[in-house]
Amino acid sequence: MSAQRHRGLTEQAADAAVDQACRMLRLPTIRTQFPDIADAAAREQMSYRGFLAELLMAECDDRARRRSERRIKAAAFPREKSLRAFDFEANPHVDPAVVHTLATCEWVRKGLPLCLIGDSGTGKSHLLIALGTEAAMAGLRVRYTLATKLVNELVEAADDMVLTKTIARYGRVDLLCIDLCGLRNYAEHRAGTRGGGCCQWCGFWHSHRVLRNARTVSVG
Predict the structure, then answer these.
(1) Which residues of the chain fall below pLDDT 70?
(2) E-strand spans in the chain?
């Protein structure tokens, strides 16, 4: 059976039909942007195919943006950090070319670990979150955690005999961001003793791999 064509609709009726169809098909971006795109198409004398392409690309772009936002939220970063906001001039030991190469996330897809090494206050946590955010925007599943929290969780899971389940949960992410900066040594923290100084590294780990042959980037 061929679809019935609705001919002779007024503009108001056509707008209402588009709105109803978009609700049924779950196309929220087309529903909200249709009037503006339709007006622009009329002004620019766009072809029907061009107009349809504009609508569909707007929906696809907005869905990709929302997926990225959900992945970033799921990563549980403590704050927003971006590579654009990183001050390379204040951190001359950080090579911008290396960082922007890392931002392509090819090393993540290959399952390679990465260590960020440097003194306190040299931007390790900023880079950790910023590179993790880039990975989430690239479509990868990311999780951020403090080393102390991770150790406590694993020890408690072992005590409760659910360690395998906990490790499997972390194993479902593509990239695990472990932050030690600004904290006491996590082993001492777990033991309840007072350690000296700040930890000196951050790391990105793939929980299904042994942490060896890690890529190291000096930060300060």
Answers:
(1) 1-8, 181-220
(2) 114-117, 142-146, 175-179, 201-205, 215-218
